[in-house]
Amino acid sequence: xxxxxxxxxxxxxxxxPSPRTSFAADPVPAVGAPRPGSPELLRSVFRQHAAGVAVIxxxxxxxxxxxxxxxxxxxxxxxxxxxxxxxxxxxxxxxxAGAEHVGVHILGExxxxxxxxFARSGADRFGAPTRWSHGPEGxxxxxxxxxxxxxRVVARVPAGDHRIVIAEAVAGxxxxxxxxxxxxxxxxxALRD
Length: 193
Known about the structure:
193 residues, mainly beta, seven-stranded antiparallel β-sheet, three-stranded antiparallel β-sheet, 12 strands, disordered N terminus
């Protein structure tokens, strides 16, 4: 391997700043910029993060509940664990707080309207045109998604005004057709090559 002349010598890093060098511990944000450490800062940074879109469902208190989530993560393969966040102020939380099983649905790019329905407060999420049925463990399973899981809840971890739900996959179907729906810059988007 040949090393270019520019890479043969590394710049020296001073141990202390010289009088002409200024290091600001807390840079002053630009006018209109989010405050350091604020919810606005977190939101504006995560607008830059493209995330897959899922709908989480559960059944309890005689009714189905669900919400759109972009916080879905694969946690472990052995045992097969997933996690997602849910706000304790959401209309779905009272049911999810006691649910033994949840449904996890990966949405396709053709399902932006479904994602918007499950994200909208006060919407009749399970009314027409939403198509669903009771799946394994009585969990609502949505039709036409790219893939779905039914998972047994194993933990609910407090995290600020949310709970991180950890659940183990017990059933599912990975064989839906299409491409995934993404969420970026506050909008639902299609995956581009």
